[in-house]
Each structure stands twice: as C-alpha cells, then as structure tokens.
Amino acid sequence: MTINLITFASLLNKQVSARSSHETLLSELEKDFTVKLIDYSEIDQLSNDDFKIIFIATGRVERLVMQCFEQLPRPAVILADGMQNSLAAALEVSAWLRGRGMKSEILHGEMATIIQRIHVLHSNFRAQRSLVGQRIGVIGASSSWLIASNVDYLLAKRRWGIEYMDIPLERIYEVYDRIHNNDVGASCAAVASQALACREGTPEDMLKAMRLYRAVKKICKEEKLSALTLSCFKLIERTGTTGCLALAMLNDEGIIAGCEGDLQSVFTMLAAKALTGKVGFMANPSMINARTNEVILAHCTIGLKQTERYIIRNHFETEIGIGIQGLLPTGDVTLVKCGGECLDEYYLSTGTLTENTNYINMCRTQVRVKMNTPADYFLKNPLGNHHILLQGNHEETLNEFLQANACKRIE
Fold it and tell me: What does the alpha-carbon distance between residue 390 and residue 369 come to, in Å, rounded to a whole number?
C-alpha cells in the first residue's frame, strides 16, 4: 500500500528537511506503507487513483496550500507531527479549508492510532475510486409507485462518478425470445436440486425465469454493467414471468441487481458491496413495532448465496413466475439506505436478525430484525420504502465512508 505525502515545507531543500526533521514519523510509517514524499510543486504528477495525504512539514506554508487548493485531495487529510511548527500550520490550513466547504482531518498523536486511521482512509479511498465509472443499467423504468426514490443522473455522476444508463425492455424481450427451453434445462435442474422445497412454481415457470436470467445477463455483458435495476412488473405483462430468479442469480455472480427500477437502492447495494464485500438484501419494511423496535423485512428475491437454505415459490403479489423464499442465518445485521436525488442522504442502523417469519400475506423472504436504534424512524422520517440488509455489523465502515463524502445521516 502506497501513500503519497504531498509535502509543504518552507525551507529551500524541502525533501531533505522533511526526512531529517521528521525521521521518527516517516520511519514508523514506512514499517506499514510505501511512503513517497511528493513536493507540492509536483502534485500534478499524481493521478486520481493515487492515495494522497497532505504533509505539513513546517510552519509558514499556509499560503502555499492556498495556492494549491484546486489540486488538493478531497476530503483533505493532513498529517502533522508537531515538529518545525507543523501542527500550528496544519490547524490554520484545516480551518481555512473547512471555511471553503472542504472536509478536512488532521492526523496527529500516537503512531498506532495514525497508522490505523490511514488504513481506514485508504479503504474508503479505494471504495470510492472503485465506484467511479461504474455503469448502472436502468432496464425499463422506475416503478410508478416509487415516487420518492428518484435520482438525478447528472448530479449522481458528479458526486460519485457512477453512470446510470436507460435500457429499454425491448432489448430484453428480443434476447429472451431467442432463448429456448432446452438451452436452460440443466440450469433449472441445478437450482431446483439445491432447494429445500419447490412449492407453487411449475417447471414451465422455472424455464421462463431462467430464460429471463440469461437474457438480462447477456445485456449486462454487452453494456458492461456493474449493476442494474429491473422494471419487474412490466416484464410480467410481456413474458409471463418475474425477475426474482434472475436478480438472485446475478447478485450471486457479483452483478448487483435490484428490483422495481429503484435507483437509490441499487446504488446503496453497489456502494455497500464496494465497502464491505457483502451483497445486500433489498426489502420492504412490511411491519414495524415501535415499542419493541422490531421490523419485518420482506421481498420475493434474495441472492441464493445469502441464504442458509431456500425454497422455490411463486411471486407473492401476482402469483406468477418464480419467487425465492430465503432462510437467512440469525445474528448481527446492518440496515442501510442512501437517498436524495443526488444520493447525499443516508439511513444506517444495526440490529439482530432474530427469526425467519412466514406470514402468508407478505413477500416470500421474510426476516424479523430487532433494531439497535428506534424503529419509529420508519414511521416518522423514512428515506422511502426499500432498505438494504447486510449480514454482519458494518455501521462504522459505512458511516465513515458516507460522512467522508459529505452525506447527511437521517435518524
């Protein structure tokens, strides 16, 4: 792991001064990282993919930092050990940057703490860079009932570097119609053989669902999509099947796939995967108990690899096609949702998945979660319907990343 220290020093021979005056600091850093000292005048030689820290090596460099404002890394991470009046200058620089709307943080104090913090910051940096250039396919259109889940494509690209692209359902239909049942028979048998049970879905339903999976996957490959959200209900009218199995299998294969054309939720899933390596379960909060802080989350699709076992069902609302009833492991979970038209708000909480429920009047995969924060958030200040459940406690990692990107936490 390489850290580039953009060095600001007031002495004539800046690099020699930085090394000799800060030998203890640099030697300790070099035990964990490859450290490169980059003079501030050469900052333009670094690329956006280089991890950068502002190194204040001496006092009297405040105006040098001002002159480099446009080229400074964002958010600004400032390293100062206090030698040569470096901390005093760092305090002044930090205040000036924050006055101009740039988030800044000073690394100072015990080396173990600084090193641990650099690891966290580097992880955030790599996750953020991994999002840049990611293509999210919007196949069809957002469902008409998702009136609070819109995203401004341009603002999202400016903030996160992601690209939403509209893909008409007709492209799916064209590919779907060219796939024959005998092309997918073996795949259907493999999925069915690993299921705990097969209930409402028929063999014909399974064949249609698998053909749809193949069609969506082909479009993902052609368009180089990292993620997609599918207009599920419109598909039913034309194909007689739902996207539940297709989305489950794509998520298992690393292509983030969300339901109902929900633009905010698919981004949440994509960002969460970049940070935690976990694929989320996109679900409806279907029942809330504000007194006990419990919520039941339900949806008709989930990645098969997220489950301990799964049952093949049909789609709850339409009783058509294939739905997935996943049985999830109990234990720590995280609920997260990014919202706002430029994806600058978020909800985040942890809890415990206590049981898999089986209500007849809800979507097929159902889990009860005991929240660690007040569940009345969902009743008083929700960021829309769908929320993303991740197995494990990832609150610190997600909060750190979203705060670093100037997002507002909703509670």
Answer: 12
User: What global pTM score does this model have?
Assistant: 0.91
How far is 393 from 298, CA to CA, in rounded Å?
20
How many domains does one find in the chain?
A: 2
**Mind listing the pLDDT tens digit for each residue in 56-71?**
999 999 999 999 999 9
Tell whether 212 and 119 lie within a shared domain.
no
What CATH code is carried by the domain that includes residue 277?
3.20.14
- Asked if pLDDT for residue 17 goes beyond 70, the answer is no
